[in-house]
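Figure 3 (text version): structure tokens given as input.
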């Protein structure tokens, strides 16, 4: 019996059927170990030794693999056919070797690009050894990402409160989004005019022609700059006679594009079926791993993480056969088509994404798939088969027309296209191509019969005013395309990078466009000012190229790390002397259009409009950046930093209260205001004035006197509890809407419940809460048990995630930091927890602190634990006293 290790249980079940009783296929469930999310997991001073950790779930899976291996004849490592898959196989083998379970048993690596019986059996018949250079490239990439993240992020925490993290690829992708936003802000719109004439042929057919020359000069796009010139030319055309000068019909061939790569699939799925990158990859993963078709689980597509554009010879033959069957002999080109990629740093080691069998048409498999799977499979099938189809044959007709008004001459042009043979367009049309056409594209219609030297009748002359528009914001698809063009990131990282930017709240999505949040722009401005090199596009692309050379065996991975770390660490050290005032001065200049938007009255946007003498500047607070006056505390004007640029910032700039009416009970005025933490209602004036922030989902423009009065008078009395005779009240707190009775709280589902809940329902909600607490399912008194242990704080003490009275929170010693609403407690990382602790008031990690020993319930793979040294240059420094060891925990 042989043991086969794959990544997912779905694949394990399918492959076990293919291989039969002589094999036991087990799943690793992805990576079996990782670098602990804490300082000291990569040790530059020990030649970049990496301390790996196996979590409890992976320990169980490794035990199952180890137990199966004990009585086996050999081991086949069949993880995914990419760098990550190679790394997982290496990790599994390394752990088994440490347990001394391999001995003289043969160990082979097998890769298959599709989950089909033929592909799996062919791979098993042709095994190889683990690709060491590919593993080295993985180790280098993992170490680089760790060193950047765990050294640069703490700098952000100290110098830029509110910032979450930085990353080697993440920060460069964010810069792309922010740079585009800056382009839009700097853009100055220019006026231009287009002129066209509606003309009629002698046969009575009408068509439109555009003005392309006048005054003996060729008119370029947007040559007519003002209405005066436009009206003069319109008058010329209104009084002119028209004669057809030439008619040229030219055949044009349009060739199909290659099959999908990871990035082109994500782009096409976005434009054609509205999937974002993450959703595309999730659905593609299911299609790759296999679906049940007629009682048999079959993989429908090849591996979906690739930048190769070629198909295997047998797949090309299958596609050509399917073309004849589905479309006819005329749609088959004489020879197969071959493609090569134009993307920078592309590795064509794997096939493009294609159907595993072209005979499985979308119509045949649709009944076995859910709606998302069917739509994505159809897209992949059509693109794959179109890539081997005949070219589309298009006739492009260009008509040149002369206009003559008493000796003043002008030239017009009409262009039309007719598809004579649709070719590959019969299978696949990419919506992106239509979307990318500009307004000056005039090949959008068919022309009537027009003959040279015949006269035309003028029907109407149109002069239309236009204004140039700024470059569009990136969509996920266009950002991925740009990253690929620049050589930033790899196919397997695009979706994860975009998700990280969204999770960190660095970007927001509006109408499928990426808009940088103020947090993201601050982080980008900071990095551009003080870590310029590490957010440069060329530097990041060159580093990716070095990683690719490592995977090809052309570079030593540790030498690449040494060269990177020397300069990077020096840059980190330089920031220790950096003062917050230096940071603010740099950000004020870099983000001037965002921080100091132009005012309609033309006054200096840096002068406070409340006091008239203070200078406005960025300020850094516990919850991030805001704009404040230099005359504080005499002038307490503050303004949020807008997430969408100057217009919104200007709307908040005056901070003028909006009167909503008086409170009938107190006679005090109710006003709507905008403060540092958002819009709020205030009753009265002065320090004793009562204030209440607007609940989530309430928009300032919707607030009237009735809503303001209801909100400012919270909490409200619901009624006395029938058993205790004590009052039940409903209110809005820091953690959302609640009920309060005799010191006990119960959550309400929505803010509307606070105003509408009656006594009977309130008693029921409180009773349900008490029954949960009594049954152990609710939150009671005392210290809640830890939901998750994240590791040790660099200054000592374990950081945990717990579930408390008011929701989940991060705990370190006496510091409790509530998690943001909507954040899954089980998904919290060490990096996030550190940021929450610092925001809550816990001190930042000491630069001299040394990492503690990992908790006993995890396994650290290293010959000896060693504290992280800061630089090679400091290796000769006197040895400091080691931090106290963590206490052993019971098993």
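Below: residues designed for each position.
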């Amino acid at each position: 019996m042989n043991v086969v290790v794959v990544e997912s249980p779905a694949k394990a079940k399918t492959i076990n059927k293919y291989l039969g009783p002589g094999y036991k296929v087990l799943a690793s469930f992805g990576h079996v170990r990782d670098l602990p999310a804490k300082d000291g997991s990569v040790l530059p001073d020990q030649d970049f030794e990496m301390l790996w950790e196996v979590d409890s779930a992976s320990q169980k899976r490794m035990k199952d693999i180890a137990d199966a291996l004990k009585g086996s004849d050999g081991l086949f490592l069949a993880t995914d056919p990419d760098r990550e898959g190679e790394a997982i196989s290496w990790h599994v083998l390394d752990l088994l070797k440490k347990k001394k379970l391999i001995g003289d048993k043969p160990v082979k690596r097998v890769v298959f690009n599709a989950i089909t019986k033929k592909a799996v059996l062919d791979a098993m018949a042709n095994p190889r050894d683990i690709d060491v250079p590919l593993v080295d490239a993985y180790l280098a990439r993992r170490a680089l990402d760790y060193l950047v993240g765990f050294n640069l992020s703490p700098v952000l925490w100290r110098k830029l409160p509110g910032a979450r993290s930085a990353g080697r690829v993440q920060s460069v992708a964010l810069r792309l989004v922010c740079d585009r936003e800056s382009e839009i802000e700097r853009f100055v719109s220019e006026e231009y005019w287009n002129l066209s004439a509606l003309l009629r042929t002698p046969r009575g057919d009408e068509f439109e022609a555009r003005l392309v020359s006048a005054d003996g000069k060729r008119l370029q796009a947007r040559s007519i700059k003002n209405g005066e010139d436009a009206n003069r030319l319109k008058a010329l055309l209104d009084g002119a006679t028209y004669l057809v000068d030439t008619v040229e019909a030219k055949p044009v061939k349009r060739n199909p594009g290659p099959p999908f790569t990871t990035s082109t699939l994500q782009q096409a799925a976005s434009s054609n079926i509205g999937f974002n990158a993450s959703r595309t990859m999730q659905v593609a993963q299911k299609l790759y791993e296999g679906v049940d078709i007629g009682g048999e689980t079959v993989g429908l597509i090849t591996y979906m993480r690739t930048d190769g554009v070629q198909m295997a010879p047998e797949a090309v033959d299958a596609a050509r056969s399917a073309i004849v069957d589905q479309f006819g002999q005329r749609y088959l080109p004489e020879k197969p088509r071959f493609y090569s990629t134009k993307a920078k740093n592309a590795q064509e080691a794997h096939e493009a994404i294609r159907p595993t069998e072209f005979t499985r048409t979308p119509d045949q498999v649709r009944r076995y798939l859910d709606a998302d799977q069917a739509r994505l499979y159809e897209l992949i099938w059509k693109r794959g088969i179109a890539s081997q189809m005949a070219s589309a044959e298009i006739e492009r007709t260009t008509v040149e027309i002369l206009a003559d008004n008493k000796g003043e001459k002008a030239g017009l042009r009409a262009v039309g296209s007719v598809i004579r043979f649709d070719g590959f367009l019969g299978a696949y049309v990419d919506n992106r191509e239509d979307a990318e056409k500009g307004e000056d594209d005039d090949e959008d219609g068919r022309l009537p019969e027009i003959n040279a030297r015949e006269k035309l009748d003028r029907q109407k002359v149109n002069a239309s005013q236009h204004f140039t528009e700024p470059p569009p914001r990136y969509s996920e698809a266009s950002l991925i395309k740009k990253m690929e063009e620049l050589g930033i990131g790899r196919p397997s990282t695009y979706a994860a990078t975009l998700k990280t930017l969204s999770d960190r709240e660095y970007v927001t999505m509006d109408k499928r466009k990426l808009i940088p949040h103020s947090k993201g722009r601050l982080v980008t401005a900071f990095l551009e000012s003080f870590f310029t090199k590490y957010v440069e596009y060329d530097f990041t692309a060159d580093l990716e190229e070095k990683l690719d050379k490592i995977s090809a065996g052309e570079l030593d991975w540790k030498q690449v790390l040494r060269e990177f770390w020397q300069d990077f660490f020096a840059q980190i050290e330089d920031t220790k002397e950096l003062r917050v005032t230096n940071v603010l001065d740099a950000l004020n200049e870099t983000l001037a259009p965002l921080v100091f938007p132009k005012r309609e009255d033309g006054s200096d946007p840096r002068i406070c409009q409340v006091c008239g003498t203070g200078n406005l500047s960025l300020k850094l607070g516990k919850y991030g950046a805001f704009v404040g006056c230099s005359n504080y505390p005499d002038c307490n004007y503050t303004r949020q930093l807008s997430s969408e640029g100057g217009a919104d910032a200007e709307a908040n700039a005056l901070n003028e209260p909006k009167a909503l009416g008086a409170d009938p009970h107190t006679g005090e005025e109710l006003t709507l205001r905008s403060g540092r933490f958002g819009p709020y209602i205030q009753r009265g004036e002065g320090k004793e004035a009562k204030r209440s922030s607007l609940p989530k989902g309430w928009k300032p423009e919707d607030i009237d006197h009735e809503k303001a009065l209801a909100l400012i008078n919270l909490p409200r009395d619901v009624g006395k509890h029938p058993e205790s005779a004590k009052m039940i009240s409903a209110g809005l707190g820091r953690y959302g809407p609640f009920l309060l009775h005799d010191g006990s709280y119960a959550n309400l589902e929505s803010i509307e419940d606070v105003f509408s809940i009656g006594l009977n329902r309130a008693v029921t909600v409180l009773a349900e809460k008490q029954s949960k607490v009594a049954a152990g399912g609710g939150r009671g008194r005392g210290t809640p048990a830890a939901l998750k242990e994240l590791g040790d704080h660099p200054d000592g003490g374990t950081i945990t995630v717990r579930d408390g009275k008011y929701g989940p929170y991060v705990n370190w010693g006496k510091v409790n930091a509530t998690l943001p609403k909507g954040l899954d407690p089980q998904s919290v990382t060490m990096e996030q927890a550190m940021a929450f602790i610092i925001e809550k008031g816990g001190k930042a990690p000491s630069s001299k602190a040394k990492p503690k020993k990992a908790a006993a319930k995890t396994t650290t793979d290293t010959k000896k634990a060693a504290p992280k040294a800061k630089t090679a240059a400091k290796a000769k420094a006197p040895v400091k006293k080691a931090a106290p060891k963590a206490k052993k925990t019971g098993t």
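Residues 2-130 form a domain with the Rossmann fold fold (CATH 3.40.50.140).
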